[in-house]
Amino acid sequence: MDPHEGVGFMDRQTHTPTHPVQARLSPAHGIAADLDAYLGDPMDDESGPFSYKAIVEAEERDELPPGAVEAVRAWGFPAYLVPRHLGGRLTSLEELFLVTRAVSRRSVTVAVMYGSGLLAVNPVWLWGDPRQQKTVAEGVLRGDLACFGVSEADHGSDVTACEARAEADGDGLVLTGVKWPVGNATRGRFVTAYAKTAPRDFSLLLVDKEELDPASWSALPPVRTVGLRGHDLSGVEFAGARLPAGCVIGRPGAGLVQTLKTLQITRTAIAALSLGTMDAVVRIGMDYARRRTLYGAEIYRIPVIRDLLLKSHLDLLIAECTALPVARALTVAPERLSLWSSIVKYFVPVQGEEVVAAIGTVLAARGYLREGVAHGAFQKLQRDHAIASVFEGTTHVNLANVAAQLPYLVVDAAGGATDREAGGDLLADLFTWTQAPPPWRPDGRALRLTNEGRDEIGARFEETAGAVVAEAAVHAAPGVASALADLVSVIDDLRADLRKGVLSAPEDSSSVAALGRARRYCEIHAMVSCMLTWLHNRRVFGGAFADGRWLVLCLHRLLQRVRPDTALPEEHVPPLEEAMARCRDERRWFSLTALADDLPSPLPER
């Protein structure tokens, strides 16, 4: 069977968009729409290995659904792990982000399998030599998996305590040590292994199991987990494994820096797991609320149920506004990812957890069952998504990363460090959904360990806020401009309080209070991201997107994190509610794009 037969969204050879609406968005949206259509409606029991029925049945056996991996390979998913100049189809992280979201709204487990591979191969793309890149690219395109062998049982995230060692032996190295737990450790052909290569130096080594003496390595037993059943989480032990010359990725001794930079990319990509999960559980909750009747009416009419679903949908829209620009930043502003990736990695998975909990309340007892509503897929999604806050640095690790940079970032709030001259174009490049980001030519030198006090998204708040209120006064729905003006004032007060708190203890980046300040910075970042998303897409999107009522609702929803008694303004809800119903009825993604009119052609020049 041709995997693209009848899809209608993309050219089957090039994955370029042919659907008139998708063609107006950046190509990444069309690619994801094609994959989404190809995989079928997960609520349809006959849609194949990615139906919730098939997924849950396989889950009961601790397996992946038969045919699931073959299906995503047939569509060409592995090609989106390989940059285009190396023979793949990956031109931006936005593409990989959106196709991962499409898989995750069905099976987080399958998405994690490929996410583990992405983490392993990125160092090769960023620092590898041509031979390493060719070998890995050819293997991945054939369907080979890869794993990132960094963790060790006794050391967790303390990579400086690594015990695995690689010692010189002739013109090669001999690797000894145990890496555990590691995704794809048993099934993966390639291992990107983190090992000590000198008393104070660590390096990343490209290990190809096919080239090793079988007696020099062994796979450890699978690890039993609460979620992700069927995923290969295991380990690998090296016992004097001889590695050829040229196995070191990049410069010897650079492994620690390379690992920290690589995590910036996958931290951002992990948010796609959360967006996919949010879409799935909101869909399950909406479907249940519209089908289930109590007291003579569908339970959606019960105020608390409606409130939970509206807030969950807003959380999803906020996550889109926050995560997509950072995915685009890999090729637009890679030097900013040290901060922005940690903001996204903290904020979006936490929102995902809250959405899952809210939908669990909607489903009540049905959410606890491993059968019934959507064949019991909710409880699987709930268990699988729990890993999102743990991968690539826990919630607290990422908040600490943000907290450490805050003293340098808040200086700009008083007129300091950010380069404002390039900020305008940069923000347009990050937030314009109809504009493709530049193609990715991986270069590890473009990534930085800190933002050096720069954050154009946060530092340009006054300019952004002024533009949003001014535009809303002319183009938005009645009442939106005044509501936004009030919200901007509240947000500005939050920024002032945050700055005061940071400057009162500039050396503190690890206390509970410091992490609380980092959390507030992330929340303000999300508020500004929503404003910039509206500002840079209003003219082209039109419709309920342009009228700005969703923006007012999203900002109120974010303020509820600070002031829980904040109420959503009911007068702005109807367009959002209509879009929710339409997405549920038409089986479309829950997304800001559902609020847009058909996008006009041609696009106006920027």
From TrEMBL:
Residue ranges constituting the Acyl-CoA dehydrogenase/oxidase N-terminal domain according to the UniProt record: 56-144
Gene Ontology molecular-function annotations: acyl-CoA dehydrogenase activity; flavin adenine dinucleotide binding
InterPro entries documented for this protein: Acyl-CoA_Oxase/DH_mid-dom, Acyl-CoA_Oxase/DH_mid-dom_sf, AcylCo_DH-like_C, AcylCo_DH/oxidase_C, AcylCoA_DH/ox_N, AcylCoA_DH/ox_N_sf, AcylCoA_DH/oxidase_NM_dom_sf
Keyword vocabulary terms for this entry: FAD, Flavoprotein, Oxidoreductase
Domain Acyl-CoA dehydrogenase/oxidase C-terminal, chain residue ranges per copy: 253-406
Domain Acyl-CoA oxidase/dehydrogenase middle, chain residue ranges per copy: 147-239
UniProt GO cellular component terms: plasma membrane
Required cofactor(s): FAD
Region (Disordered): 1-21
Entry's family note: Belongs to the acyl-CoA dehydrogenase family.
Protein name per its UniProtKB record: Acyl-CoA dehydrogenase
